[in-house]
């Protein structure tokens, strides 16, 4: 199986390294900007998303993944639908099963909800409510970012993702406990749950249960484990936001390692713009002497090129200006 990686090198796990942002405090805007520059990653507290809503969605997600495999595979599809082990269509694999859907549930994802889940109506309702609530929080964070960057129009970024018809995605992941890790002949290797990659969209918002596994890559190339926190959200900068800030913000490389004992469940909202949106460095952020580091592209162009790549590829390279 191609999911074994290099021997374990214990990554640093310094909780204090990961910026924690209280988004109920407007002054946090500068701390968010710094986090996006230094790490492309931060944890958000006092977010206003209902704890009850989050736990109902987690419950429904666990119920869904506990269905017999034969039922789940009836939802297999591309790009949206149920998947197991295979990630994308270019040969990537991981110790994971997932359900991917368009965040606009009225679009192509609707057939995803036949009478399969135990409570189809509840599952759909809770997904809709969760997506609306996380989208609202995301827009708030993007407005704090534009404000922190000193951009006059605070909706410059949030308007790209605020509409429910933008190309945003919700991903539910289940990383089952991995028996391979315990086996002596595994040679003490990590098992990759989800291989290292950056997210193509503008910004991604992750929430998980309390099982560890997520790691982020720092500027010096080292990996740190992100201590799980089921009551917070983790934000990461996507490739499109790196381009719009002309490289000032970093699209963070991240991965998930499988766990030998506990299941990890996560839900990630990928905030993407509409297909026709042009992605280019924002001129309001550039000084006269600054050079644009990237060629302009539309989200539709970038999305197709991303979906033809392997997970660990540097997808922005081909758009860098020579
Ligand atoms: C990474 C971010 C999101 O999970 C995702 C992934 C997508 C997929 O799972 O189909 C991709 C990956 C992600 C980028 C490169 C391509 C496409 C798997 C893959 C190998 C849903 C997305 O938008 O891009």
Automatic annotation (TrEMBL):
Highest taxon, organism lineage: Eukaryota
Organism in which the protein naturally occurs: Camelina sativa (False flax)
One family name in Pfam for this protein: 2OG-FeII_Oxy
Signal peptide: none
InterPro entries linked: DIOX_N, IPNS-like_FE2OG_OXY, IPNS-like_sf, Iron_ascorbate_oxido_reductase, Oxoglu/Fe-dep_dioxygenase_dom
Record-given protein name: Gibberellin 2-beta-dioxygenase 1-like
Residue span(s) of domain Fe2OG dioxygenase: 165-273
Family: Belongs to the iron/ascorbate-dependent oxidoreductase family.
Keywords from the named record: Iron, Metal-binding, Oxidoreductase
Record bears the keyword Iron: yes
